What does this fold into?
Amino acid sequence: MTWERSSSSPVHAGPSGLGNPATPYRMTVTTALPHADALALADQCLATWLKQEWCEEPPPPEQPAPTPRTGASPVERFRLGERVLLDRDGGPLDGPWSGGRYDRRRVRTPAPHGADRLTVTVATGPVGPTWLRLEAAAHTASGGVRAPGRVPVPEVVRTLLPLLDAADGPAAVPAAPRVLTAAGVDRLVDELCDPDRRMPTVVASVPAGLGTGPWLAEVVAPLCDQLPGLAGLYVLDADARTRFNVALEYHAVYGGAVRTYLPEVDPASRRDGRRHPVLARNRIEEDPRRAAALLSREPRRLAAERPLPPVLASVPVLRVPRPAAEPDRTPPGPGAPVPAHGREERERIGHPGRYEGRRERHHERPKPKVLPGGAATGRAAGPGQGCVSVGRLCATTGGAGAPTVPTGPARRSGRRRAGPPGVRGGVPLSFTELMARLGEFPLLTFTGDQKAALALDELGCAGGGWARLTWDGLTALQEYAEAAVRGQAGGDFKQWCERTPAGCHRFPPRKAVRGESRTVHSHAKWKRERMLPVPECVDASRRAFMGAHLRIGGGRTAPRLHYLDDCSGSGRIYVGYIGLHLTNTRTN
It folds into this structure.
Protein backbone atom coordinates (compact mmCIF):
# COMPACT_ATOMS: atom_id res chain seq x y z
CA MET A 1 0.00 0.00 0.00
CA THR A 2 1.41 3.37 -0.98
CA TRP A 3 0.68 6.71 0.63
CA GLU A 4 -1.46 7.78 -2.35
CA ARG A 5 -3.83 4.86 -1.75
CA SER A 6 -3.77 5.11 2.02
CA SER A 7 -7.16 4.90 3.70
CA SER A 8 -5.94 6.62 6.83
CA SER A 9 -7.89 9.60 8.10
CA PRO A 10 -6.42 13.09 8.01
CA VAL A 11 -4.92 14.50 11.15
CA HIS A 12 -7.56 15.96 13.41
CA ALA A 13 -7.23 19.65 14.14
CA GLY A 14 -6.33 20.81 17.59
CA PRO A 15 -8.32 23.21 19.74
CA SER A 16 -6.55 26.43 18.87
CA GLY A 17 -5.36 28.60 16.06
CA LEU A 18 -6.83 30.48 13.15
CA GLY A 19 -7.87 28.74 9.96
CA ASN A 20 -6.40 25.25 10.31
CA PRO A 21 -5.50 24.90 14.03
CA ALA A 22 -2.13 23.56 15.10
CA THR A 23 -2.13 19.79 15.64
CA PRO A 24 -0.82 19.06 19.15
CA TYR A 25 2.01 16.68 19.96
CA ARG A 26 1.13 13.80 22.31
CA MET A 27 3.43 11.07 23.63
CA THR A 28 2.51 8.22 25.97
CA VAL A 29 5.26 5.79 27.04
CA THR A 30 6.24 3.55 29.93
CA THR A 31 9.50 3.14 31.80
CA ALA A 32 10.89 0.51 34.14
CA LEU A 33 12.19 3.26 36.43
CA PRO A 34 10.45 3.89 39.75
CA HIS A 35 7.99 6.78 39.87
CA ALA A 36 10.32 9.06 41.83
CA ASP A 37 13.24 8.48 39.44
CA ALA A 38 11.13 9.10 36.33
CA LEU A 39 9.75 12.30 37.85
CA ALA A 40 13.24 13.51 38.81
CA LEU A 41 14.45 12.99 35.23
CA ALA A 42 11.43 14.85 33.86
CA ASP A 43 12.07 17.76 36.26
CA GLN A 44 15.73 17.80 35.29
CA CYS A 45 14.98 17.91 31.56
CA LEU A 46 12.36 20.64 32.03
CA ALA A 47 14.78 22.74 34.08
CA THR A 48 17.50 22.37 31.44
CA TRP A 49 15.11 23.35 28.67
CA LEU A 50 13.82 26.38 30.60
CA LYS A 51 17.38 27.52 31.23
CA GLN A 52 18.13 27.29 27.51
CA GLU A 53 15.04 29.45 26.91
CA TRP A 54 16.50 32.11 29.24
CA CYS A 55 13.94 31.38 31.94
CA GLU A 56 14.67 31.05 35.62
CA GLU A 57 15.17 27.53 36.88
CA PRO A 58 12.20 26.35 38.95
CA PRO A 59 12.83 25.67 42.64
CA PRO A 60 13.24 22.02 43.58
CA PRO A 61 9.93 20.27 44.29
CA GLU A 62 9.04 19.74 47.91
CA GLN A 63 6.42 17.56 49.56
CA PRO A 64 3.73 20.04 50.66
CA ALA A 65 1.02 18.99 53.08
CA PRO A 66 -1.88 17.28 51.27
CA THR A 67 -5.30 18.88 51.25
CA PRO A 68 -7.65 17.28 53.81
CA ARG A 69 -10.45 16.53 51.30
CA THR A 70 -8.58 14.78 48.52
CA GLY A 71 -5.17 13.96 49.93
CA ALA A 72 -3.60 15.64 46.89
CA SER A 73 -0.87 18.24 47.24
CA PRO A 74 -2.01 21.81 46.53
CA VAL A 75 -1.07 23.19 43.14
CA GLU A 76 2.00 25.42 43.10
CA ARG A 77 2.33 28.17 40.50
CA PHE A 78 5.66 29.83 39.70
CA ARG A 79 6.55 32.72 37.43
CA LEU A 80 9.85 31.88 35.72
CA GLY A 81 10.06 34.75 33.22
CA GLU A 82 8.03 37.23 31.25
CA ARG A 83 4.66 35.46 30.82
CA VAL A 84 6.27 32.08 31.61
CA LEU A 85 4.31 30.08 34.18
CA LEU A 86 4.93 26.68 35.77
CA ASP A 87 2.17 24.73 37.55
CA ARG A 88 3.02 21.68 39.68
CA ASP A 89 0.66 19.27 41.38
CA GLY A 90 0.48 15.65 42.45
CA GLY A 91 -1.24 13.20 44.75
CA PRO A 92 -2.76 9.75 45.11
CA LEU A 93 -4.90 8.09 42.47
CA ASP A 94 -8.48 7.11 43.27
CA GLY A 95 -10.77 4.25 42.38
CA PRO A 96 -9.29 0.97 41.14
CA TRP A 97 -5.86 2.57 41.10
CA SER A 98 -5.93 3.43 44.78
CA GLY A 99 -2.40 3.10 46.09
CA GLY A 100 -0.93 4.67 42.96
CA ARG A 101 0.32 8.22 42.50
CA TYR A 102 0.55 10.94 39.89
CA ASP A 103 2.66 14.08 39.47
CA ARG A 104 2.12 16.75 36.84
CA ARG A 105 4.05 19.72 35.45
CA ARG A 106 2.60 22.31 33.08
CA VAL A 107 4.66 25.09 31.51
CA ARG A 108 3.11 28.02 29.63
CA THR A 109 5.41 30.13 27.42
CA PRO A 110 4.58 33.07 25.12
CA ALA A 111 4.65 32.59 21.34
CA PRO A 112 4.03 34.89 18.33
CA HIS A 113 0.65 33.21 17.78
CA GLY A 114 -0.41 33.36 21.44
CA ALA A 115 1.02 30.82 23.88
CA ASP A 116 2.57 27.35 23.93
CA ARG A 117 1.72 24.87 26.66
CA LEU A 118 3.75 21.80 27.64
CA THR A 119 2.26 19.30 30.09
CA VAL A 120 4.16 16.34 31.57
CA THR A 121 2.32 13.76 33.69
CA VAL A 122 3.94 10.83 35.51
CA ALA A 123 1.52 8.21 36.91
CA THR A 124 2.07 4.83 38.53
CA GLY A 125 -0.52 2.32 39.70
CA PRO A 126 -0.13 0.01 42.70
CA VAL A 127 1.36 -2.52 40.27
CA GLY A 128 2.80 -2.23 36.78
CA PRO A 129 5.16 0.18 35.05
CA THR A 130 5.51 3.92 35.39
CA TRP A 131 3.59 5.84 32.71
CA LEU A 132 4.69 9.18 31.28
CA ARG A 133 2.46 11.41 29.17
CA LEU A 134 3.78 14.52 27.44
CA GLU A 135 1.55 16.91 25.48
CA ALA A 136 2.55 20.11 23.69
CA ALA A 137 -0.11 22.42 22.29
CA ALA A 138 -0.23 25.86 20.66
CA HIS A 139 -3.01 28.18 21.81
CA THR A 140 -3.81 31.09 19.52
CA ALA A 141 -5.25 34.32 20.87
CA SER A 142 -7.99 36.00 18.86
CA GLY A 143 -6.50 38.42 16.36
CA GLY A 144 -3.09 36.85 16.78
CA VAL A 145 -0.61 35.47 14.27
CA ARG A 146 -1.56 32.18 12.62
CA ALA A 147 -0.31 29.20 14.61
CA PRO A 148 1.99 26.62 13.01
CA GLY A 149 0.32 23.72 11.19
CA ARG A 150 1.51 21.22 13.77
CA VAL A 151 3.34 21.53 17.05
CA PRO A 152 6.92 20.28 16.56
CA VAL A 153 8.49 17.61 18.72
CA PRO A 154 9.53 19.36 21.97
CA GLU A 155 13.25 19.33 22.68
CA VAL A 156 12.46 17.89 26.10
CA VAL A 157 11.31 14.69 24.35
CA ARG A 158 14.61 14.17 22.56
CA THR A 159 16.49 14.53 25.87
CA LEU A 160 14.10 12.52 28.02
CA LEU A 161 13.50 9.42 25.90
CA PRO A 162 17.00 7.89 26.15
CA LEU A 163 17.20 8.68 29.88
CA LEU A 164 13.93 6.86 30.57
CA ASP A 165 14.63 3.86 28.34
CA ALA A 166 11.07 4.54 27.18
CA ALA A 167 8.97 1.68 25.88
CA ASP A 168 5.64 0.99 24.19
CA GLY A 169 4.66 -2.44 25.43
CA PRO A 170 7.37 -4.78 24.12
CA ALA A 171 8.94 -2.16 21.81
CA ALA A 172 11.54 0.44 22.67
CA VAL A 173 10.74 4.09 21.84
CA PRO A 174 14.03 5.67 20.74
CA ALA A 175 14.78 9.33 20.10
CA ALA A 176 16.46 8.48 16.76
CA PRO A 177 16.41 5.60 14.23
CA ARG A 178 18.49 2.57 15.14
CA VAL A 179 20.31 0.28 12.72
CA LEU A 180 19.19 -3.34 12.95
CA THR A 181 21.33 -6.29 11.94
CA ALA A 182 20.16 -9.78 11.00
CA ALA A 183 20.48 -10.89 14.64
CA GLY A 184 17.76 -8.47 15.71
CA VAL A 185 15.16 -9.29 13.05
CA ASP A 186 13.33 -11.98 15.03
CA ARG A 187 12.86 -9.60 17.95
CA LEU A 188 11.55 -6.90 15.60
CA VAL A 189 9.04 -9.33 14.05
CA ASP A 190 7.84 -10.28 17.54
CA GLU A 191 7.41 -6.60 18.41
CA LEU A 192 5.40 -5.91 15.27
CA CYS A 193 3.02 -8.79 16.00
CA ASP A 194 2.66 -8.19 19.74
CA PRO A 195 -0.92 -7.10 20.65
CA ASP A 196 0.37 -4.81 23.44
CA ARG A 197 2.12 -2.51 20.96
CA ARG A 198 0.15 0.78 20.76
CA MET A 199 2.44 2.94 18.60
CA PRO A 200 3.26 2.43 14.93
CA THR A 201 6.73 1.22 14.02
CA VAL A 202 8.62 2.81 11.12
CA VAL A 203 11.11 0.54 9.32
CA ALA A 204 13.45 1.94 6.66
CA SER A 205 15.37 -0.07 4.06
CA VAL A 206 18.72 0.83 2.49
CA PRO A 207 19.00 0.84 -1.34
CA ALA A 208 21.24 -1.81 -2.86
CA GLY A 209 24.79 -0.58 -3.36
CA LEU A 210 24.61 2.22 -0.76
CA GLY A 211 26.17 2.19 2.68
CA THR A 212 23.90 2.06 5.75
CA GLY A 213 25.69 4.91 7.56
CA PRO A 214 25.42 7.57 4.82
CA TRP A 215 21.79 6.63 4.00
CA LEU A 216 20.86 6.86 7.69
CA ALA A 217 22.55 10.25 8.18
CA GLU A 218 21.50 11.91 4.92
CA VAL A 219 18.02 10.50 4.33
CA VAL A 220 16.47 8.52 7.17
CA ALA A 221 17.39 10.77 10.11
CA PRO A 222 15.91 13.96 8.57
CA LEU A 223 12.90 11.98 7.36
CA CYS A 224 12.16 10.77 10.91
CA ASP A 225 12.84 14.10 12.63
CA GLN A 226 9.19 14.57 13.66
CA LEU A 227 8.69 10.99 14.93
CA PRO A 228 10.49 10.75 18.32
CA GLY A 229 8.00 9.68 20.95
CA LEU A 230 5.41 8.77 18.34
CA ALA A 231 6.81 5.59 16.76
CA GLY A 232 9.48 2.93 16.94
CA LEU A 233 12.29 3.69 14.45
CA TYR A 234 14.49 1.10 12.72
CA VAL A 235 16.85 0.91 9.72
CA LEU A 236 17.53 -2.53 8.21
CA ASP A 237 21.00 -3.19 6.89
CA ALA A 238 21.38 -5.44 3.83
CA ASP A 239 21.42 -8.76 5.73
CA ALA A 240 18.58 -7.72 8.04
CA ARG A 241 16.47 -6.61 5.06
CA THR A 242 16.74 -10.03 3.41
CA ARG A 243 15.86 -11.91 6.58
CA PHE A 244 13.03 -9.52 7.45
CA ASN A 245 11.39 -9.83 4.04
CA VAL A 246 11.52 -13.62 4.18
CA ALA A 247 9.80 -13.60 7.59
CA LEU A 248 7.17 -11.04 6.49
CA GLU A 249 6.67 -11.78 2.80
CA TYR A 250 3.33 -9.90 2.68
CA HIS A 251 4.77 -6.91 4.60
CA ALA A 252 8.13 -6.51 2.89
CA VAL A 253 10.13 -3.28 2.57
CA TYR A 254 13.07 -2.78 0.20
CA GLY A 255 14.75 -0.50 -2.34
CA GLY A 256 15.17 2.50 -0.03
CA ALA A 257 11.45 2.59 0.84
CA VAL A 258 10.15 3.30 4.35
CA ARG A 259 7.15 1.43 5.74
CA THR A 260 4.89 2.27 8.69
CA TYR A 261 3.65 -0.81 10.54
CA LEU A 262 0.46 -0.07 12.43
CA PRO A 263 -0.44 -2.05 15.58
CA GLU A 264 -1.52 -5.68 15.32
CA VAL A 265 0.39 -6.95 12.28
CA ASP A 266 -0.80 -10.31 10.93
CA PRO A 267 2.23 -11.77 9.12
CA ALA A 268 0.20 -14.57 7.45
CA SER A 269 -2.37 -12.24 5.88
CA ARG A 270 -1.80 -10.80 2.41
CA ARG A 271 -4.80 -8.55 2.94
CA ASP A 272 -3.35 -7.14 6.17
CA GLY A 273 -0.22 -6.15 4.24
CA ARG A 274 -2.22 -3.49 2.40
CA ARG A 275 -3.02 -1.80 5.71
CA HIS A 276 0.56 -0.63 6.38
CA PRO A 277 1.56 2.31 4.13
CA VAL A 278 4.79 2.47 2.15
CA LEU A 279 6.72 5.63 1.30
CA ALA A 280 8.73 4.94 -1.86
CA ARG A 281 12.31 6.10 -2.37
CA ASN A 282 11.43 8.37 -5.31
CA ARG A 283 8.83 10.20 -3.19
CA ILE A 284 11.41 10.72 -0.46
CA GLU A 285 14.11 12.09 -2.76
CA GLU A 286 11.67 14.15 -4.82
CA ASP A 287 10.52 16.28 -1.87
CA PRO A 288 12.15 15.32 1.47
CA ARG A 289 10.19 17.90 3.46
CA ARG A 290 6.81 16.74 2.19
CA ALA A 291 7.86 13.12 2.65
CA ALA A 292 8.67 13.80 6.31
CA ALA A 293 5.24 15.38 6.78
CA LEU A 294 3.54 12.38 5.16
CA LEU A 295 5.50 9.94 7.29
CA SER A 296 4.55 11.67 10.56
CA ARG A 297 0.86 12.03 9.67
CA GLU A 298 -0.29 8.55 10.69
CA PRO A 299 1.67 8.43 13.98
CA ARG A 300 0.28 11.88 14.88
CA ARG A 301 -3.26 10.73 14.18
CA LEU A 302 -2.90 7.56 16.22
CA ALA A 303 -1.39 9.49 19.15
CA ALA A 304 -4.30 11.95 19.08
CA GLU A 305 -7.05 9.31 18.84
CA ARG A 306 -5.64 6.53 21.00
CA PRO A 307 -7.48 6.13 24.35
CA LEU A 308 -5.44 6.81 27.44
CA PRO A 309 -4.22 3.87 29.52
CA PRO A 310 -6.45 3.45 32.61
CA VAL A 311 -3.74 4.70 34.99
CA LEU A 312 -3.37 8.01 33.14
CA ALA A 313 -7.12 8.30 32.60
CA SER A 314 -7.59 8.27 36.37
CA VAL A 315 -5.42 11.37 36.87
CA PRO A 316 -7.71 14.05 38.37
CA VAL A 317 -8.53 17.45 36.94
CA LEU A 318 -5.78 20.06 37.08
CA ARG A 319 -6.91 22.77 39.48
CA VAL A 320 -4.88 25.91 38.85
CA PRO A 321 -4.70 28.25 41.86
CA ARG A 322 -5.45 31.93 41.93
CA PRO A 323 -4.20 34.17 44.71
CA ALA A 324 -6.46 36.16 47.03
CA ALA A 325 -7.83 39.46 45.77
CA GLU A 326 -6.15 41.64 48.39
CA PRO A 327 -2.58 41.87 47.09
CA ASP A 328 0.58 41.80 49.08
CA ARG A 329 2.19 45.09 48.14
CA THR A 330 5.61 43.51 48.47
CA PRO A 331 6.09 41.61 45.20
CA PRO A 332 7.18 38.03 45.77
CA GLY A 333 10.37 36.69 44.29
CA PRO A 334 10.28 35.25 40.79
CA GLY A 335 10.11 31.70 42.08
CA ALA A 336 7.59 32.25 44.87
CA PRO A 337 4.53 29.99 44.65
CA VAL A 338 1.04 31.41 44.53
CA PRO A 339 -1.39 30.28 47.28
CA ALA A 340 -3.48 27.35 46.10
CA HIS A 341 -7.01 28.69 46.47
CA GLY A 342 -9.53 30.68 44.51
CA ARG A 343 -10.94 29.96 41.07
CA GLU A 344 -10.09 26.53 39.67
CA GLU A 345 -9.22 25.93 36.04
CA ARG A 346 -10.30 22.46 35.05
CA GLU A 347 -8.32 20.32 32.69
CA ARG A 348 -8.26 16.53 32.45
CA ILE A 349 -5.43 15.06 30.50
CA GLY A 350 -6.85 13.39 27.42
CA HIS A 351 -10.44 14.07 28.58
CA PRO A 352 -11.03 17.82 28.18
CA GLY A 353 -14.78 17.19 27.97
CA ARG A 354 -15.02 16.26 31.62
CA TYR A 355 -15.78 19.35 33.61
CA GLU A 356 -15.65 18.60 37.28
CA GLY A 357 -15.66 20.58 40.46
CA ARG A 358 -18.45 22.04 42.55
CA ARG A 359 -19.81 25.50 41.70
CA GLU A 360 -20.95 27.74 44.54
CA ARG A 361 -24.15 29.75 44.11
CA HIS A 362 -24.29 33.50 44.51
CA HIS A 363 -27.70 35.10 45.05
CA GLU A 364 -26.78 38.76 45.47
CA ARG A 365 -26.22 40.93 42.45
CA PRO A 366 -22.49 41.84 42.35
CA LYS A 367 -21.45 45.40 41.85
CA PRO A 368 -18.62 46.16 39.43
CA LYS A 369 -15.39 47.01 41.17
CA VAL A 370 -13.82 50.15 39.73
CA LEU A 371 -10.07 50.17 39.25
CA PRO A 372 -8.07 53.42 39.38
CA GLY A 373 -8.91 55.50 36.35
CA GLY A 374 -12.53 54.36 36.14
CA ALA A 375 -11.98 50.77 34.91
CA ALA A 376 -14.54 48.26 36.13
CA THR A 377 -13.47 44.70 36.82
CA GLY A 378 -16.94 43.26 36.40
CA ARG A 379 -16.60 41.67 39.86
CA ALA A 380 -18.12 42.56 43.17
CA ALA A 381 -15.87 44.74 45.31
CA GLY A 382 -14.54 43.21 48.46
CA PRO A 383 -12.32 40.34 49.60
CA GLY A 384 -12.08 37.44 47.24
CA GLN A 385 -13.31 39.44 44.24
CA GLY A 386 -11.74 41.50 41.50
CA CYS A 387 -8.62 41.42 39.36
CA VAL A 388 -5.42 42.58 41.01
CA SER A 389 -1.72 42.08 40.46
CA VAL A 390 0.49 39.97 42.69
CA GLY A 391 3.98 40.02 41.27
CA ARG A 392 3.05 39.44 37.62
CA LEU A 393 0.51 36.72 38.16
CA CYS A 394 -3.12 37.35 37.34
CA ALA A 395 -5.10 37.29 40.56
CA THR A 396 -8.77 36.95 39.68
CA THR A 397 -10.61 34.75 42.12
CA GLY A 398 -14.00 33.31 42.58
CA GLY A 399 -14.30 31.43 45.83
CA ALA A 400 -17.50 30.82 47.68
CA GLY A 401 -19.03 34.02 46.44
CA ALA A 402 -18.39 33.44 42.76
CA PRO A 403 -21.39 33.94 40.46
CA THR A 404 -22.98 30.78 39.16
CA VAL A 405 -22.49 29.86 35.49
CA PRO A 406 -25.96 28.73 34.40
CA THR A 407 -26.93 25.75 32.33
CA GLY A 408 -30.13 24.78 30.53
CA PRO A 409 -32.76 27.29 29.35
CA ALA A 410 -31.42 30.18 31.44
CA ARG A 411 -28.03 29.86 29.77
CA ARG A 412 -29.46 29.53 26.26
CA SER A 413 -31.58 32.66 26.64
CA GLY A 414 -28.72 34.70 28.06
CA ARG A 415 -30.54 35.13 31.39
CA ARG A 416 -28.24 34.67 34.37
CA ARG A 417 -31.10 35.45 36.80
CA ALA A 418 -34.01 37.82 37.10
CA GLY A 419 -32.85 41.36 36.39
CA PRO A 420 -33.55 44.49 38.42
CA PRO A 421 -36.69 46.62 37.86
CA GLY A 422 -36.85 47.91 34.29
CA VAL A 423 -35.17 44.85 32.78
CA ARG A 424 -37.46 42.66 30.67
CA GLY A 425 -36.61 38.96 30.39
CA GLY A 426 -33.31 39.38 32.22
CA VAL A 427 -31.72 41.27 29.30
CA PRO A 428 -30.62 44.87 30.00
CA LEU A 429 -32.30 47.62 27.99
CA SER A 430 -29.61 50.19 28.72
CA PHE A 431 -25.83 50.32 29.09
CA THR A 432 -26.27 51.63 32.64
CA GLU A 433 -27.96 48.36 33.57
CA LEU A 434 -25.50 46.33 31.51
CA MET A 435 -22.42 47.83 33.17
CA ALA A 436 -23.95 47.21 36.60
CA ARG A 437 -24.39 43.52 35.78
CA LEU A 438 -20.99 42.68 34.33
CA GLY A 439 -20.33 40.54 37.40
CA GLU A 440 -22.70 37.95 35.93
CA PHE A 441 -19.92 36.92 33.53
CA PRO A 442 -17.33 35.21 35.77
CA LEU A 443 -14.67 34.76 33.06
CA LEU A 444 -14.93 38.27 31.57
CA THR A 445 -13.17 41.29 33.05
CA PHE A 446 -13.95 44.84 31.93
CA THR A 447 -10.79 46.95 32.10
CA GLY A 448 -11.87 50.02 30.13
CA ASP A 449 -13.51 53.34 30.91
CA GLN A 450 -17.22 53.06 31.66
CA LYS A 451 -17.91 56.56 30.40
CA ALA A 452 -17.74 55.52 26.73
CA ALA A 453 -20.31 52.78 27.31
CA LEU A 454 -22.64 54.87 29.49
CA ALA A 455 -22.60 57.64 26.88
CA LEU A 456 -24.37 55.27 24.47
CA ASP A 457 -27.57 55.63 26.53
CA GLU A 458 -27.73 59.28 25.49
CA LEU A 459 -28.27 58.33 21.84
CA GLY A 460 -31.96 57.56 22.27
CA CYS A 461 -33.83 54.50 21.06
CA ALA A 462 -30.77 52.93 19.37
CA GLY A 463 -29.11 52.52 22.75
CA GLY A 464 -31.59 49.84 23.91
CA GLY A 465 -31.03 47.67 20.85
CA TRP A 466 -27.29 48.15 21.14
CA ALA A 467 -27.38 47.15 24.81
CA ARG A 468 -29.28 43.95 24.01
CA LEU A 469 -26.82 43.03 21.24
CA THR A 470 -23.86 43.80 23.52
CA TRP A 471 -25.38 41.52 26.17
CA ASP A 472 -25.71 38.79 23.55
CA GLY A 473 -22.04 39.20 22.67
CA LEU A 474 -20.94 39.07 26.32
CA THR A 475 -23.07 35.96 26.87
CA ALA A 476 -21.45 34.22 23.90
CA LEU A 477 -17.96 35.30 25.01
CA GLN A 478 -18.59 33.88 28.49
CA GLU A 479 -19.72 30.52 27.11
CA TYR A 480 -16.75 30.44 24.73
CA ALA A 481 -14.37 31.20 27.63
CA GLU A 482 -15.85 28.35 29.69
CA ALA A 483 -15.03 25.95 26.87
CA ALA A 484 -11.66 27.52 26.04
CA VAL A 485 -10.19 27.12 29.53
CA ARG A 486 -11.06 23.40 29.25
CA GLY A 487 -9.52 23.08 25.78
CA GLN A 488 -12.92 22.45 24.17
CA ALA A 489 -13.52 25.66 22.21
CA GLY A 490 -12.28 24.23 18.90
CA GLY A 491 -10.66 27.49 17.79
CA ASP A 492 -11.01 31.21 18.46
CA PHE A 493 -14.22 33.10 19.22
CA LYS A 494 -15.14 33.63 15.56
CA GLN A 495 -14.86 29.90 14.91
CA TRP A 496 -17.00 29.34 18.01
CA CYS A 497 -19.66 31.63 16.52
CA GLU A 498 -19.51 29.79 13.21
CA ARG A 499 -19.96 26.40 14.91
CA THR A 500 -21.80 27.24 18.13
CA PRO A 501 -22.44 24.04 20.13
CA ALA A 502 -26.02 23.00 20.77
CA GLY A 503 -27.48 24.60 23.86
CA CYS A 504 -25.15 27.63 23.75
CA HIS A 505 -26.07 31.21 22.94
CA ARG A 506 -25.39 32.08 19.28
CA PHE A 507 -23.76 35.36 18.25
CA PRO A 508 -23.72 36.27 14.52
CA PRO A 509 -20.32 35.23 13.08
CA ARG A 510 -20.24 38.25 10.73
CA LYS A 511 -20.27 40.50 13.78
CA ALA A 512 -17.24 38.77 15.35
CA VAL A 513 -14.02 40.22 13.90
CA ARG A 514 -10.64 38.66 14.58
CA GLY A 515 -8.52 41.76 14.14
CA GLU A 516 -8.14 45.19 12.65
CA SER A 517 -6.98 45.96 9.13
CA ARG A 518 -3.36 46.46 8.19
CA THR A 519 -4.11 50.17 7.78
CA VAL A 520 -5.17 50.48 11.41
CA HIS A 521 -2.10 48.53 12.55
CA SER A 522 0.24 50.85 10.65
CA HIS A 523 -1.44 54.09 11.76
CA ALA A 524 0.18 55.14 15.06
CA LYS A 525 -2.78 57.13 16.43
CA TRP A 526 -5.41 54.55 15.51
CA LYS A 527 -3.31 51.72 16.91
CA ARG A 528 -2.74 53.68 20.12
CA GLU A 529 -6.52 54.01 20.60
CA ARG A 530 -6.75 50.23 20.64
CA MET A 531 -3.92 49.75 23.17
CA LEU A 532 -6.27 49.09 26.06
CA PRO A 533 -5.75 48.27 29.76
CA VAL A 534 -4.92 44.76 30.92
CA PRO A 535 -3.51 43.39 34.19
CA GLU A 536 0.25 43.17 34.57
CA CYS A 537 -0.01 39.39 34.40
CA VAL A 538 -1.01 39.71 30.75
CA ASP A 539 1.50 42.38 29.73
CA ALA A 540 4.13 44.15 31.82
CA SER A 541 3.17 47.50 30.26
CA ARG A 542 -0.45 47.02 31.46
CA ARG A 543 -1.58 47.71 27.88
CA ALA A 544 -2.33 45.33 25.03
CA PHE A 545 -3.53 45.79 21.47
CA MET A 546 -7.15 44.66 21.26
CA GLY A 547 -7.82 44.27 17.57
CA ALA A 548 -10.44 41.56 18.05
CA HIS A 549 -13.87 43.13 18.41
CA LEU A 550 -17.63 42.67 18.11
CA ARG A 551 -19.72 44.82 15.81
CA ILE A 552 -22.64 46.23 17.79
CA GLY A 553 -25.16 47.40 15.21
CA GLY A 554 -24.34 48.78 11.76
CA GLY A 555 -23.36 52.11 10.32
CA ARG A 556 -20.38 54.40 10.29
CA THR A 557 -20.28 55.11 14.03
CA ALA A 558 -22.05 52.02 15.41
CA PRO A 559 -20.54 50.78 18.70
CA ARG A 560 -17.78 48.24 19.05
CA LEU A 561 -16.72 45.93 21.85
CA HIS A 562 -12.93 45.34 21.86
CA TYR A 563 -11.49 42.42 23.78
CA LEU A 564 -8.37 40.31 24.36
CA ASP A 565 -8.71 36.53 24.54
CA ASP A 566 -6.26 35.28 27.18
CA CYS A 567 -8.03 32.00 27.98
CA SER A 568 -4.85 30.05 27.27
CA GLY A 569 -2.93 32.19 29.77
CA SER A 570 -4.77 33.74 32.69
CA GLY A 571 -7.99 31.91 31.79
CA ARG A 572 -9.98 35.09 31.12
CA ILE A 573 -11.20 37.43 28.41
CA TYR A 574 -10.47 41.13 28.96
CA VAL A 575 -12.97 43.63 27.54
CA GLY A 576 -11.08 46.88 27.09
CA TYR A 577 -13.66 49.04 25.35
CA ILE A 578 -17.41 49.36 24.82
CA GLY A 579 -18.42 52.49 22.96
CA LEU A 580 -18.77 54.23 19.61
CA HIS A 581 -16.58 53.05 16.75
CA LEU A 582 -12.94 53.97 17.30
CA THR A 583 -11.19 55.98 14.60
CA ASN A 584 -10.43 54.34 11.24
CA THR A 585 -10.63 55.17 7.54
CA ARG A 586 -14.44 55.35 7.60
CA THR A 587 -14.88 57.39 10.76
CA ASN A 588 -12.06 59.82 10.10
